[in-house]
Amino acid sequence: MRGNIPSIRLPKQAVERGKLFCNHCLVGRLDFKKISLSPVKTMALKLWGPESVWKIIPLGKGFFIVRFSNEEDLMRIWTGGSWKFGDQLLRLTKWTPDFDLEVQRTTKALAWVRFPKLGQQYWEYECIMSIAKAVGCPIGIDKFTMEREFGYYANVLIDLDLSKSLPNQILVEVEDGKEFIHDVVYPVLPNFCAHCQTIGHLRNDREGSTRLQEHVSRTMEN
User: Fold this and answer.
1) Which member of 23, 136, 216, 221 has the greatest number of CB atoms within 10 A?
2) 9 CB-near residues (< 8 Å, 6+ apart)
3) How many angstroms separate the CA atoms of 113 and 138, rounded?
4) What is the 3-state secondary structure (H, E, C) of 140-179?
5) Residue 155 burial by CB count (10 A; 0-12/13-18/19+): exposed, middle or buried?
6) Fold exhibited by the domain 12-94
7) pLDDT of residue 99
8) Could you report the per-residue pLDDT of 132-148, keeping only the tens digit for each?
9) What is the pTM of this model?
């Protein structure tokens, strides 16, 4: 007991097995008042063409997780951007242990981030991915960066948390004692509403939509 509340301790190994299962999961959200789960599964199969065993598990409030049995399918679909299901856009995020649909907000998105004029001595995969960690969770680099097709900027796909301030500069430290300030450029970011803490629209868009709804309501009342 913990006070007046019964308490129980979960086996650590069982919890770890549950985490391993969820590590191959992506989280999505759709308005199931407009589309049911069955056609979503059909469209997902056609859009994604998964090569491994997969399943969609509804969680409630429009949220669901998509579980893949191999890493290749998960990464390909996660990094594929937004997916169109009917008239809705599906943005998938990686499952994390703190996921809670009661308080969940869509604040993370994948975006290409540029590190311009990066010294060629740092154009190693490990160096570039390490630098990108200062901004978010790096997923990978593009073919041109990987093969050094041009040296204008290193291009990295990063999982960004848009609810946090994104730096325009970062401090890079090298083990030999050298350090330097480097610029960060975000060519295209999805719309993010700081008020709603969710991706998909800007605060001004929301306020404009609210004013329009209020105007329509007053007009109908009159």
Assistant:
1) 136
2) none
3) 10
4) EECHHHHCCCCCCEEEEEEEEECCCCCCCEEEEECCCCCE
5) buried
6) Alpha-Beta Plaits (3.30.70)
7) 85
8) 999 998 988 999 999 99
9) 0.63
